[in-house]
Amino acid sequence: MTKIGVDKAAELIKAAHAILLIGHTDPDGDCLGSLYALKAGLVSIGKSASVYLKKPLPLKYRFLSDELEENTDIPECDLIVALDTPQLKRLDIDDPAKLTSPILAIDHHPGEHTEFAYALWDDGKSACAMLIKALLQKMAITITPKMAGALYAGIVTDTNSFVNQNTYADTFQAAGELTELGAKPDEIAKYVYGSLTPGDISALSYALSTLELYDKDRIAVMSLKREWQNEGNDTDTELFVNYARSLVNTEVAIMLTETKEGVRVNLRAKNAYDVSAVARKLGVGGHKAAAGIRMNCPLEEAKKLLLENIKFDD
Ligand SMILES: [Mn+2]
Asked: Which residues span the domain enclosing 287?
């Protein structure tokens, strides 16, 4: 792996004709916003760019559907760009061996990124969207209001509306510039935080009723069984973990969602606790204060494993 800066990443992309973009499993707002803006930007300068996406967009990200739709074709390409992940196995594709072109990772997670040919990687950035913004600007690509909105959505969601530990001065600077370029904060908030269905709210009430506290109330766990979810759909539980996190003594909040493909786990830390270490051990790494993993075991077993692996010094 060669660690590169924005200049070199811009050169690599300029030299490529056909580019495939791919994000991570359970793509979040940062992943999707980054995919959207990079694809739109590349198309605007005449590149052939496509996005590999295993599932349709969740309701709250449908505003990105003019560039992003379910697509599992792997076209001929000279470069693959992997967004928002430090590891190949976290990519949103069942068999990463099918990706035969060189892969450029653009990411802000801690990790080695050794499986990729190149990595534009800065774990001091709040969101991958900030790296995409810098890259587009380096390539002198016009960031349209729609692209600005997508990148802004990435920053808002990855910082939990500018309240998580990964919110820095340059986060606000980037969000401010994107607002100048036409991102509308109220509109993005309406999509991202105002798209729950009545079924989601009833699932939330089930999840809240499962709240359990461990280790002097420092660990708060909530879970959602499949039978409590909208029929045929995996409920969007991304924000549920914030309720467990909001308890006064919580240091680590855990939300477990039973899905067709194992258990989706959202981990959040409030103070100094580093959940990325737990995430690395039981799945693929995440950030210090926020990580999402998948576990292929029953719900109760996932909970037990997590609790066994979250320890405090006293
Ligand atoms: Mn991210």
From this structure: 198-309
